[in-house]
Amino acid sequence: MGRKILIVGGVAGGASAAARLRRNSEEDQIIMFERGPHVSFSNCSLPYHLSGIVKDAEDLVLMNPELFLKQYNIDARIYSEVTAIDRENKIVKVKRTDSGEEYSETYDKLILSPGASPIVPKLPGIEHTNIFTVRNVVDIEKLKQSIEQMDSKEITVIGGGFVGVEVAENLREAGFHVTLIEATNQILRPFDYDMVQIFHKVLIDHNINLILGDKVERFDNNNIILASGKTVPASAVVMAIGVSPETHLAKESGLELGQTGAIKVDSNYQTNDPDIYAIGDAIEVYHALTGLATKLSLAGPALKQARTVADHINHKNTPNKGYIGSSAIKVFEYNGASTGLNEALIKFLDLNINYEVVNLILPDKVGIMPDAAPMYFKLLFEVPSGRILGAQAIGMGDVTKRIDVIATAIKFNGTVEDLKDLELSYAPPFSTAKDIVNYAGYVGSNLLNGDFKQVNVDKVRELVKDNNIIIDVREAYEYSQGHLNGAINIPLSELRERIDEIPKDKPVYLHCRSGQRSYNAALALQNLGFTNVINITGSFLGISLYEYYNDRNAERDSIVTAYNFS
Predict the structure, then answer these.
(1) Which residue, among 390, 384, 363, 359, has the nearest Cα to 374 in the 3D structure?
(2) How far apart are CA 380 and CA 341, in angstroms?
(3) Which residue among 209, 210, 294, 463 is buried most deeply as judged by most CB within 10 Å?
């Protein structure tokens, strides 16, 4: 005899759970409730409607109630909000949001997938401001239609997370004058501060007015007043400072919330009521690297959770190994991806992890290919085990391929030694014969073995300020086009002939364009008896990118005579 399974929420997690439930059984009655007008829409694609990449709002909707019924025999009810759960009698109350009609439905099993709501703080003057959020198709269509009718082209996005940056990019592509405000000192927290400077530069290169480290205080007559006293004109404001898990239904029915404030679930995504499951943005999950409960608003994990729940209801076991958090973003012509831990998270959570960092800048494909470009890659690994902890990559090429390899390695407890031995597909238009992932393994293994010493680009300003000895091993013509203040030019091609110019009694820092020649110089000098040489990882290209935004924003003196971005 079939069961009656109700699902609250008809987007990614809910719709996937419904489809998997049907694949597991033809006997069960499956009803899915969605309070809005659409089920199974691509919420991650919403910002791309603003620029016209996704031309019609209808294209964002992947399924409709009629198709769900015909293809899957699933009763998908739109404009239907579940307002209460009677756990004792296993009944939910439902309200039609279009007509106000109320009714009840019984259940054998209940799955909660309500998602999360955009956070809109109650700031002074906000009630008189043209505020928008981006959560669903209705939201994005309302935003697009409103701004197209405005006389002004001034739009401000508040919040530098994934949604905020994607909305800002697509508004700029649509021809609007965009200000992006982030209260902290950087956008896109999955990337470390040294890496994200690349995206800061990309945004200002595309004439987005990027304001960091300044908080919105109030709104006044189509103006935003910041904590610094700065006034930003804004005929429309997109609020994208984050999301809050939808937990009111769970809380009011006595379901337990976790330490993060999201719904607490076990390894099978059961709540403290064995007949009620929860998935998606509304729950907290186990982070496999930190061992802590965390919130993870990503589509991939939600779909995996949906499958696990549908299988568990049908007595199939799915191991839950936790999550590491893998994500990607496009920012104009640049792509970024990250997985696992970054330095900021390790420090924020005060994790007791001894780790080392690999920083690489290498071509994303064979250099003679016309579209070859630098790829910026950062890998964290544990010392002394070599276990991979996380990675970030930014470039104009396929960064997701590289980060997906690292994410897979993390899932299998891979080490930097494993990366050396990976056999990855190669052809000149796609990659190099030794991929940047392999190089990360080589460098990580060398660092584990103590083969050389390094310092990152974020320490170079202090080195220059303190008049440390810095040797630029690029060729003379490269040096003449821009170099660090006070750096000595001894090209790698002349190094052995000019060995007497290099002291042995004080630290000597070496750099080139990307770090490869200076690494070779460091090893050559070590083989000649030098024990005081340190490679500047990332070198002049990395230094230029790291320094540029703050030089420009703070109007401070540069430590380079000219930047190099290519």
Answers:
(1) 363
(2) 8
(3) 210
